[in-house]
Every structure is written in structure tokens, then in C-alpha cells.
Amino acid sequence: MSIARFRKILLAGPLSERQRLLRSWQAFGRLHIISRDGSQGFERQLSPRDKRAYEAMKHLQLSANARRPLQHWPKTLLQQHNVVEAANQLVDDVLDNANQIRQVGDEADSLRERINALRPWGDFRLPPDSSVDKFRLWFYRLPVNQRDALDELELPWQIAGRSSRFYYLIVVSATEPPVDLLPVPREHLGSRSLQQLELELEASESRLEDLQLERERLTRFRELLRRHLVAADNEAVYRYVMAQTEQHQQLFSLSAWVPEEALAELDTMATELGFAWSAADPLPEEQPPTLLQPAKALRPGAMLASVYQLPAYRSWDPSGHLYLSFVLFFAMILSDAGYSLVLLLALGVFWRSLGRNDSGRTLRQLMVSLLGGALCWGVAAGSYLGYDIAQVAPDYWLAGLKVIDLSNYDAMMKISVIAGVGHVIVANLSLAWARRRQWSQVVTRLAWVVMTAAGLGAWLLPAQQTHMLILAGVAAAAILLFAAWPSQGGLKQRAISLGKGALALANVTKLFGDVLSYMRLFALGLASASLGLTFNDLAAGAAASSPGVGIVSAALIFLLGHSINLALAIMSGVVHGLRLNFIEFYNWGEPGEGYAYQPFRLREN
């Protein structure tokens, strides 16, 4: 586990060769460009046409069904257009389809609302005004508890329908009735009949189906469109880097960060292509990008670190700790071997699809570790879909593997606190190693380790409580003296450092609260096991109540109940497992905040 070391390089070449060299450096793919304005990362400035292509791709990805993707443009299409023109025409067709689907869908939704509003009055067609001496019909939806308002109504009226809540009322009047005629406003139903609206809705739905089929047909081109987008993205990045170069008469230059292991390859390229470069170590005030280089077995930890916060360049790599502790915490919260087996089977279904790219394979590795750890913890706890194996089958060989009793509250609380103390101690030791050249910080971090361990010992070993308190006192004195030890200065600086040390020592309350936060491991694991047992009891009661319907009810209770419990356990395991890492662990490990390494490279098709 380490953070890659970077060198700051300056590249220079003939201005006439700038385009060729930039293309070569993009193919090299190891340069993190230093922008002229100091911003981090690439600011891709896609053309309006490329932005439309991204919108078209999103529209095709939303299709419920997708055709087999084409790998080559049809010859009939290339006879009329070149590849770029064909891609642009495809984008126009897809976006036109998207606009029509949106318009027809909105029209269909509007018609459904009109139909639902008109249906209670029945199917009728309003006569022309001239055929009834200009008398017109006005519609009201009157609540049944306001029926008395009709007794004072002077205009002719008729109840056309009734529901449990409303009277659907028709009032006859040559002019629009006054607003206060009834305690409710009139309904605006329009001039079209229910039958006419239903015919229009049927036509809209038919048109919408045709448009959906057209989108499905266009999904054949999604791979070709994706390649077009990759090329557009590469071109946008190239234009951005071109803007970061500086001109010096007949030369141009470009600044970048590059990993140290890539310098030899860069030197070979410079000899072959004919450009100059120089490298220098980062200055103390400069912040190179962060590139985590964990061991292959710990790659998921780097993914977890990038989800929340990458460590600073000059800090330490917490990815291995994140990975291993997340596996442990997830296992303690799930606490059921049966659930773990169900999730492992589900993972097997998606195994091949997750292995199509590096990120999918890393996620797959993480899920195998999480579920494997949860399976081992569940076997040790003897819990299988809420059933305690030691009670259900005490003579079975799996019962002999049960070594953890989830119902033993005292033991589980101690395990959770020990896990928390160990996590905080590892964080402080890691930070002490990262700051090993600052002896005062090393002493301070080791003092926190001693204080944390002494506090745990005072709780677990009452007979040694006096010795533990003495150790804690010595650690507190070390924190007070060395937490803000000045590098130089007189009596005034020493006094200020003691004041800062006293503030640092106040973090003992935070230490106590952070360690207690790990009690959620015990609480959530117990909640998961208790819910599983509850659903099992409910299913058993339903099955015993009736030999026929009761069995069906029991099966539904069992499946639905455990599905809910499994979903809650997964959510709790992920959220709280990561929270303990990103809040409590990061608070004591202080890995800092960096920014990601984004090399100037070609995206592959």
C-alpha cells in the first residue's frame, strides 16, 4: 500500500511539431497536465454536436429492449454519407425520436387526465349552443357532506352520478354561473366527449408504441455511437491540453506531473520523437495528484478511498485498512450465514457481466470478500436465515462451529468495543508512521494509542484498573506537552504550545464517543438476527393455524419478511460499515484530502 511518487516535468518542442507531439503524449497516457490557471483535472469543452450525441446515447440506453449492436456502419448508409455524416444523421434521428416520444407521451398523459375527470359524468356530447336556445351545461363535483347547498340552488340542476365522496352535478344556465353559486368551483371538462377522448388516447398510445419500436431499431447503432463519443471525448481533451501549452517564439512548452516509474519510458520517447524535457521534485507548497498503488489483493480499498476522499499526496494510503475493516464490519452487521449464501448465489448470476472491465472486476472482488467474510462470521455465530443452528440441530456438525453467541449482550458489547479500539489504534499508528520524521507528532500519536488501550484495559480488567489509569495519566501528560511542541522559541512559545496541548487533550471526549460509535456493530447485528427470528416465528404460527391456506401464508411471510430483513441488513452494513471508516477512522488517521490522478490519454474503443 503506497502513494505513487510524482515528478514535475516541463516538456518543450518545436512549435511546428506541436500537434504531432501532443498526439504522441496523449497516446503515452501518463501525463497529468498542470493547467495554466491552476485548476485540477480536465475541463472537456465538447462541441454542441458532441453534446447532442451524448443526449442521443442516453436516450438509446433507456430503451426497454435493445437489438444486437452493429460493429460496422451499413454499406447502404456509407454510400450516401461518410462516417462522420452518418454519425451526425444518426444523432439527429435519435433526438427526433426522443422529442416525439416526449411529446406524444405528454399528450397521452393529458388525455388520461381528461378522461379520468370526465368519466364520472358519463359519455355524452355537448350540443351546439344554437340548438338549445343558448342554454349551456356547467359541471360541478360537490362533496356529499355539502348536499344541502342544492336546496338553495335556483338554476335547473341534475345529479349525473355519485361516488362515496362526491355528487357529479350538472347545472343548466345560459351564462356562466357566479363563482359563489356552490361552495366548490366548477369543473373544466372541455368540449370533447368521453368517446372522442378515448379514441384520441388510443391513437396516441399506438403512435407511442411505434416510436418505441423505432427507438428499439435505433439501438442497433449504440456501439457505433459510443465509438463516436469516445473519439469526440479524446478530441475534446486534446483541445483542452492544446490550450494549456505556452508559446516561446518557435517553441512551445507544457507542464505536467508524471509518476517516477514512467520517466524512463518518457526519456526513450523524447529520443525517438525529438522533444526536450526536464524533471524536478515537487516543492513543499505544491500538491501533486494522488495515485494509490495498493497490492493486487487490496485493490477494492483504493476504490473505497476514492468514493469518499483520496488521501493527500504527502500523507499515507488508508486503502488497505478501509478494505479489511469494511469486510469485518459488514460481516458483524449481517451476522447470518444463510443471507450470505443467498447473496453469493446472486453474485454468481452476475459474475460474468461484472468481469467485463477493471472496475467491474474490482467490485466483484470486493463483493466476494464482503460476502465471504459475512459467511464465516455467520457460521461462527450459528445463524442461518434467523435460525440458531445450536437450537435447531444441536448434533449437526455446523453446530460445533458456533463460537459466537449473538444473544450474549455483554460479550457482543465487548467485541464491538474491542473492534473500535483496535480501529482507532491502527489509525493512530498509521499516522505516527506517516509523520515519523516529526518526533513530537510520533510521541503524541503513540500517547493516544496508550490512552486508548489503557481505557479499554481499565474496563475489561478491573483488577488492573489502577495501573491502567496511571498509564492513561502518563499518556495525557505526553499529549499535553508534545501535541503542539514548537520547533523553536522561548518561554512564550512554550506556554502557547501548552495551551494548544490542553485543547488537543480535550479530544479524549471525542475518543470516548468514537469508540462507543462502534456499538452500532452489535446493535445492528442483533437487530438483523432478531428480525429474522421474528419472521420465522410468524411463519411458523401461520403454518400451524391452517393446513392449507396457512402454509401459503407462511411461505409468503417467510419470503417477504426475510427479503425486507436482508435489504435492511445490506443497507446497514454498507452505510454504517463505511461510516465507521470515513468518520471515526479518518478522524484519527488524518490522511488528508488529495485530488485524483487524471492522465492525458486516449480513451480506448
Word description of this protein:
- This protein is of the alpha+beta class and 605 residues long.
- The protein has 20 helices and eleven strands.
- Among the domains are: 15-119 and 195-289, no CATH class; 127-190.
- The chain is 59% helix and 9% strand.
- α2 runs antiparallel to α6 (222-244), α10 packs antiparallel against α12 and α14 packs across α18 (508-517).
- The mean pLDDT is 88.
Blueprint (SSEs and pairs):
Layout: E1 6-14, H1 18-28, E2 32-33, H2 48-61, H3 75-78, H4 83-118, E3 136-143, E4 157-162, E5 166-173, E6 186-187, H5 194-218, H6 222-244, E7 246-248, E8 251-259, H7 263-273, E9 276-280, H8 299-308, H9 319-334, H10 337-349, H11 351-354, H12 358-381, E10 383-384, E11 387-388, H13 389-392, H14 409-434, H15 439-460, H16 465-482, H17 491-505, H18 508-517, H19 519-545, H20 549-589
Antiparallel strand pairs: 1-8, 1-9, 2-8, 3-5, 3-6, 4-5, 7-8, 10-11
Helix pairs in contact: 2-4, 2-6, 4-5, 8-9, 8-12, 9-12, 9-19, 9-20, 10-12, 14-15, 14-18, 14-19, 14-20, 15-16, 16-17, 19-20
Structure summary:
The protein has 605 residues and is an alpha+beta fold. The chain is built from 20 helices and eleven strands.
What is the CA-based Rg, rounded?
35 Å
- Alpha-beta content class: alpha+beta
Query: How does the major sheet shape up?
Result: 5 strands, antiparallel
Note the beta-strand portion.
5-15%
Instruction: Report the count of strand segments.
Output: 11
From the spread of the alpha carbons, the general shape counts as: extended
Helix content range of the residues, please?
A: 55-70%
**What's the average pLDDT?**
88
The unreliable regions are none
Number of helices: 20
End-to-end separation: 31 Å
